[in-house]
């Protein structure tokens, strides 16, 4: 599938690997794909990101993603649903971190060995790549570009899509920024 990626999309994926390495993460996640997209310049996706004001809100988005990692990857919707049945994630998190240390659910790195070799992509990150292919095919685009990766990040449920939506980047708003008002008619499933 990687051969169907444009040069910019390939750079985004390799940039995500770099973000994972810099974070000393064991694997490449959806978050790393988003951060790499936010780094990109001169593409249709970077125009949409700038038009939606995401570049200006990068720090707050990174903080929200860090908080989601701290909650063990639970989305705000997950947290609210659990609260609805009497489970207080904040209380559980405080107890777990009290016993095992701050950031334990986020996979905080202590004295870990230096990573050698390739970092695998999480199931969620692989899902984003697969969804970007489906979006490109649905739009009848020949290649998978950065814009398809951005749309996929908004379309796949999880903390990254939540943070994007909280910052005004839903599938519909990103699609409008990318393709104008007529973009919705070619939406992929």
From TrEMBL:
Keyword Ribonucleoprotein among record annotations: no
Gene Ontology terms describing biological process: proteolysis
Any GO molecular function: peptidase activity
Gene3D superfamilies registered for this protein in UniProt: Clp, N-terminal domain
Coiled-coil residues: none
A Pfam family hit: Clp_N
InterPro entries: Clp_N_dom_sf, Clp_R_N
Keywords: Hydrolase, Protease, Repeat
Domain Clp R: 2-184
Listed name of the protein: Clp protease N-terminal domain-containing protein
Natural source organism: Streptomyces glycanivorans
